[in-house]
Amino acid sequence: MSVEINSLLHAGYSHPLFREWQATRSITKSALMYPIFITDVDDAKEEIPSMPNQFRWGVSRLQEFLGPLVERGLRSVILFGVISDSSKKDSCGSMADSDECPVVKAVKVIRKLFPDLVVACDVCLCEYTSHGHCGVLYDDGSVNNAKSVERIAEVSGNYALAGAHIISPSDCMDGRIKAIKSKLMELDLSHRVAVISYSAKFASGFFGPFRDAAGSAPSFGDRRCYQLPMNARGLARRAILRDLREGADGIMVKPGTPYLDILAEAARLAEDYPISTYQVSGEYAIIHASAKAGIFDLKQHVMETMHGFMRAGASLVLTYFTPELLEWLDN
Amino acid sequence: MSVEINSLLHAGYSHPLFREWQATRSITKSALMYPIFITDVDDAKEEIPSMPNQFRWGVSRLQEFLGPLVERGLRSVILFGVISDSSKKDSCGSMADSDECPVVKAVKVIRKLFPDLVVACDVCLCEYTSHGHCGVLYDDGSVNNAKSVERIAEVSGNYALAGAHIISPSDCMDGRIKAIKSKLMELDLSHRVAVISYSAKFASGFFGPFRDAAGSAPSFGDRRCYQLPMNARGLARRAILRDLREGADGIMVKPGTPYLDILAEAARLAEDYPISTYQVSGEYAIIHASAKAGIFDLKQHVMETMHGFMRAGASLVLTYFTPELLEWLDN
Amino acid sequence: MSVEINSLLHAGYSHPLFREWQATRSITKSALMYPIFITDVDDAKEEIPSMPNQFRWGVSRLQEFLGPLVERGLRSVILFGVISDSSKKDSCGSMADSDECPVVKAVKVIRKLFPDLVVACDVCLCEYTSHGHCGVLYDDGSVNNAKSVERIAEVSGNYALAGAHIISPSDCMDGRIKAIKSKLMELDLSHRVAVISYSAKFASGFFGPFRDAAGSAPSFGDRRCYQLPMNARGLARRAILRDLREGADGIMVKPGTPYLDILAEAARLAEDYPISTYQVSGEYAIIHASAKAGIFDLKQHVMETMHGFMRAGASLVLTYFTPELLEWLDN
Amino acid sequence: MSVEINSLLHAGYSHPLFREWQATRSITKSALMYPIFITDVDDAKEEIPSMPNQFRWGVSRLQEFLGPLVERGLRSVILFGVISDSSKKDSCGSMADSDECPVVKAVKVIRKLFPDLVVACDVCLCEYTSHGHCGVLYDDGSVNNAKSVERIAEVSGNYALAGAHIISPSDCMDGRIKAIKSKLMELDLSHRVAVISYSAKFASGFFGPFRDAAGSAPSFGDRRCYQLPMNARGLARRAILRDLREGADGIMVKPGTPYLDILAEAARLAEDYPISTYQVSGEYAIIHASAKAGIFDLKQHVMETMHGFMRAGASLVLTYFTPELLEWLDN
Amino acid sequence: MSVEINSLLHAGYSHPLFREWQATRSITKSALMYPIFITDVDDAKEEIPSMPNQFRWGVSRLQEFLGPLVERGLRSVILFGVISDSSKKDSCGSMADSDECPVVKAVKVIRKLFPDLVVACDVCLCEYTSHGHCGVLYDDGSVNNAKSVERIAEVSGNYALAGAHIISPSDCMDGRIKAIKSKLMELDLSHRVAVISYSAKFASGFFGPFRDAAGSAPSFGDRRCYQLPMNARGLARRAILRDLREGADGIMVKPGTPYLDILAEAARLAEDYPISTYQVSGEYAIIHASAKAGIFDLKQHVMETMHGFMRAGASLVLTYFTPELLEWLDN
Amino acid sequence: MSVEINSLLHAGYSHPLFREWQATRSITKSALMYPIFITDVDDAKEEIPSMPNQFRWGVSRLQEFLGPLVERGLRSVILFGVISDSSKKDSCGSMADSDECPVVKAVKVIRKLFPDLVVACDVCLCEYTSHGHCGVLYDDGSVNNAKSVERIAEVSGNYALAGAHIISPSDCMDGRIKAIKSKLMELDLSHRVAVISYSAKFASGFFGPFRDAAGSAPSFGDRRCYQLPMNARGLARRAILRDLREGADGIMVKPGTPYLDILAEAARLAEDYPISTYQVSGEYAIIHASAKAGIFDLKQHVMETMHGFMRAGASLVLTYFTPELLEWLDN
Ligand SMILES: [Zn+2]
Ligand SMILES: [Zn+2]
Ligand SMILES: [Zn+2]
Ligand SMILES: [Zn+2]
Ligand SMILES: [Zn+2]
Ligand SMILES: [Zn+2]
């Protein structure tokens, strides 16, 4: 009973170099985007208890924070605002694009300090609204999609004016990509500001530590009416196709590893676009916990997740492990 | 700037029931297979330190162990043998299918005790060989594929004769599905013993705790020449297609969550077959560690992974959380 | 007349980093394989007039030649034999796998000197036959395919026994992949020697300088009856599919840039396999001539071709620019 | 070990005529379009140093230049304007469609002299703007897409009024195909003036000699924000699909040989349209340099590139070798 | 109510040259194969009443007949034998490959007279059997497929030995392609004799005049049990795929125009192969009759059919209009 | 050398009934539409010399003409108008939809006489314009598409008001389907008048006799700028897709047999629509000439073409053989 010749696979991966050749794409520094938290306390460097080694940074400490990373090869960051003084929050998130918004200030500073660093701005209202929801609400507490989209587009325009290279709306409202693109055209910025849409963002339990970090938990209700149900492959596909139709320059899937199947689907549906994924706070915290418990070596664990993202089709990964990866990729 | 009508997705998931409707398939008790460790110490119940709540069981305690689970709805198990007395191991894993093999004995006992419970046998040599590799070796320590396949088929035949409903080879040798199927035909058992192939089994770091549990770490070298490289989508596809061509009745992807993209690929390639995935020991241990560290509620975490498996296309999940899931699915 | 929103592409590539994200795969050191000429004069280092900076090397100078490159990150080489003493050539290319063959000797030396370097052997008869054809001939001067395949398999087996990791038949005979794989199985080497087939090798004018280098021009006739006609997309597709069916571990398209369309086709047809392409001697010489004539900067020219290979789907590139690329990729 | 019958390919190309039958399409005179440079010095015939045998022609010498070629079977030309007197250039390229524009004058003359010759006009601003960019600029030096599209459409309309059969915009602005088509409808010319779009035009190093010829190098910056990144298969696909959606009558890929994979992709995406490719100035100069250096016979080299274009799916080739090809096709 | 821009098609074919660009392939001399009748009367030139301008030629007049055509560019012929002396016919068509067979003699003569002319031999038994059927019969008059295939392969081998470049079996027996290929391998001719299969040959009324020409009408019954039913798209597809699987080098569809849909299907199914079609005797006679009746100009009619063949995907056309086409293509 | 089992096709068509089963669809009376010429001489029955057995009928003789056919099972007709008095023709074809138009009168009569007979009206201007072109012209003699479309829609509306069930525009203007549909909506008739578009109508030589019949030859120029070039598979596909996009209820390919490949393409592209084809006047005349010349029996010839239409995918055939077919289908 001899083996069929074309059943023989072993030879094709019998040597470490052969195994590298099997990769459809390799991990590079330019594929990493570092998510950072900017607080409204300008000289702050505050620990985030649930996320080891991550801090909330004030604008005046960005040189200290980012300088060494840029030197090591950091190519892009994505900014999230943190408002420690809750009295500045209101129902429509006015702070989100005021001149005092830490994100607006940080964009300007970073563009000046590091002219070659790409700056993306996450756009959402939840860090700035008194109710902690991602949009503007009706009186009954449900989301007013039309008003929300208008506001999201307005904020996006102001981030673009401040100097953002990329607008990344994470709010999950229906129709916001078209609204943002239209706003950018109106501002004559549509030719140099790209829009990467959080198209497939799921109502996941992996976001817990982030809400700590950004102070953005909703004060009532939850986000299941705008973030996608975790079982919903069909809605995810429709959201991706919708955002392409509306003019998105890139697509994001979030969280990462627990939704690798959707990432692969995105890479197929949006085969002509850069595909990104966000290894979220929960994934980050768990990898640390797992290393601490002696279950899995941290570096090996991170690398296995990175291989997974590349294998599934990502061209860009948002990860809190960016500093470590910049080092590891040098060796 | 009004929203395009076909950009509106929110209504479709605005109610909890609507969100359930989005699922392509739901989680049921019949979709769970419980992996259990059978030791050669007949009356043992040994803790496995790296895997909370999991034990190595002796054959004489299977009634005590499985009885309550069967009552709760357990429909299938998969057996792994553990040889505590290393003097019984040799270079070709003779113990694997001897009458003294705990798996052989357990199959017979379980079939008698629980006539309706489906019994699958994992087939591999690593738990039984002195060198701890999954096949028979050449003198230079590399795997002799032809000899290994022959031995794997022989062991499979003996498990089938002992009463196994399903043969599940996890050894990753080239051509073993055809060999097993041929052996079953020779024994006139091919019409009632199914073969579920570990087609896409990756050389993953998530297997650590399992090796503790089964005492199966290789004494030298590693398994990278027969388990798939973790970046290799292409080899995984080829292995799945090969196993279908050779007659497999079902396909497995292992580990689970970190390879969801491959699970989705398998569901596409093998669309006419039952698709299974193995939530492995490392995934299990990490979910426990994460709960213990307060990052993610255990039940919610398990459920999010289960939703992922179903969304990606699994019809069968091998998971150590089977006992908990049998309970949760009742509520 | 306003512009349609989804007609706007500029933003998506308005920043250098955005342009990098558009790449489906990036160029890495592990993707380079360096083709080298081994002469039967053991201490030789002979200039190849038509190929600037390339030499024919004797076996005793391989440490001097390859040492610095391995240090810089060279991961793989492919060997071509050169027989300067034409009295050693005969009608069936006996020298090809004799113990005196420079390739056989070089494989052994390199494996000893650089244990981590992957060694591929080009397999063909033309460097060793008195008539300079790639196979064994009938009396009428046409190729005897059956005899040729038998001989090619025999040579392949001997290279594998000498230590080659990869066998790469460039002879274009019908059915040789199956024959080589069968020979490797017979020798119990099929699990650790991979076969990369020159599946789509065209009767191109770009091979001129190579024939100088290897002393392998046919003494009569040409190779149009076994190398593919340059217009033949259909035959190329059939040859690729045939070689996959016969068990190849990888596929090659040759030449490179002038057949990029076929490379893209290969990447589609063989999507589960590593895809390689050979930037041949003529392409190499022309890039040098173009730089010398001031038409195109050499580094930019090479990089544009490399981007092309990656864009079209290559995972492995055989190029004489490997030494330069190892340097450039460090900056 | 006999060869499988359907592995036998040799017979299918064993005779020169069989090899011709393998071609999916053959090279004909009607598939050639000759790119010519028209200067504002009416009686000029100026050598272009970087492009052997190519000249800038004044309008009054077109009879002498084109007469013999038309007799030999020339079916179409594409015109590029050259403004030697830089004082005639301004920020919006007014000269591009003035009555004094050499292209406008040449269209009229050629239509009168050679009524059966098809005349295409390349449409771009870079030969006419003081800054040398392909569009109208914002004050910050970046491209104003809306204004540029408007101007491109205006110029196109004037070339159509002068008698052009084909408008070929090479400017790469977003949305210009729709704008041009709308302008032609407005002028009641949309039923007899076709638009062939430079849809996939890459920011390539192969354009060097052209800039010499046309005097069109940008005075600052480069064209990377509107010409496609050379790694970007996805953007190229999107640009082709966009132009089809906007009403293009044909599609162009430029440069030719180094982007054959994209040409093949275009032939698939736009399978119902004539597909054209431009063998650009750098390709032309390099083929000459290669012949001069004795690497590759000029005619054989040109023919191998032409076979490549046809194989990849071109129905129309813009090439400076048109005069030679008209001769070669007669033999 | 304005017209949608992408509904505008007119411009794309408003000029005669634009209309030529729409062709996917053009008609060339190398795409023509001339079917000729060779009689056993060596010095004959006999009119065929039903086929104007076509004759049965004796072997000694082939110089006179073919010389001028070869000079005009004739590249290939296909030979049909005619046995005027019915006493030479028997039940197994022994004459078909005897040394006295006019086809065997003609092959030798033509190969000597015109070394560059490709010679194909139609292989069938009906011109040589006493019963006029295409195969060997059982006693009940039905076809003995196994015997027929054996005999067809034998005849094919003898034509190949006589010097035929191409074997073209028109007999429609099941499995004859594999048998012919095997015979050619046995004779060491498989590398230089190609097989073009009449894969989709229908039981058509358009064959009437041919039977006159070749004297091959069956003496009883008809050919509906081996020629395809004219309604049978499915059988035609299966026959094409079967012949590819069995090793055919090319595929034929017969008749031509009335089965253009099947020709297009063949071009899709066999996209990697040369596709041929046979404009049969009935089509030829009708075009003449139509011209004579003043319904349609002969040349225009022929050209419209030729455009149809090219449009549907033919790379090779067997047509009795070859002499006229050789002339027309010169103008 | 035995025959492969899956190479055996003969059995599947060895019996006449089996051969019928091979048909994907059969010929029925309901699939026939009879094209008839209505002249402005009310009591006329004029022979059409080039079309045996076909007449131009006056309105008052329609009972005599159609009565027996309806009795035999005629289900639908398509009407063409003939204006014998050329003084009634003008530049915009005013007669086309005047109350005196023979088509308008005939629709009303037929609807009254044969309430169950479906009446289609061919819509074109060429039978009614003084210049004989299918649209309204610019002063330079080229077609004014916008004006033509407007006029075609107006005529369509009037035929619908007169009682036509189907509007069939044969004019080939760009965008007329959308215009006709809009006109029908305006008239509140869009729910009961279907539009079958002559989407793929080629500039064929097979239309000669029709122009005699309808008196519609153009007085200058030809129709090549609006009827499709006969080589243009791409344009035909685009025209079909365009008409579907614009709302057509059915698609027509014309002529029939010489464009069977396009008919098959239409059946694929418009798989959800009824597909029709027109066996045109030239095809009709030639079948008669062929029968008269003794080449092919008329009935067998017609049936072979009908089998072809069905095989290629037609659901509706416009043929002048309708009366004969109604008879033949009864036997
Ligand atoms: Zn939010
Ligand atoms: Zn194992
Ligand atoms: Zn060779
Ligand atoms: Zn330009
Ligand atoms: Zn026959
Ligand atoms: Zn008309």
UniProtKB/TrEMBL annotation, chains A, B, C, D, E, F:
5-aminolevulinate 2 binds at S281, Y320. Its EC number is 4.2.1.24. Pathway: Porphyrin-containing compound metabolism; protoporphyrin-IX biosynthesis; coproporphyrinogen-III from 5-aminolevulinate: step 1/4. Its cofactor is Zn(2+). SMART domains: ALAD. GO terms for biological process: protoporphyrinogen IX biosynthetic process. PANTHER family: DELTA-AMINOLEVULINIC ACID DEHYDRATASE (PTHR11458:SF0). Homooctamer. This is Delta-aminolevulinic acid dehydratase. The lineage of its organism: Eukaryota, Fungi, Dikarya, Ascomycota, Taphrinomycotina.
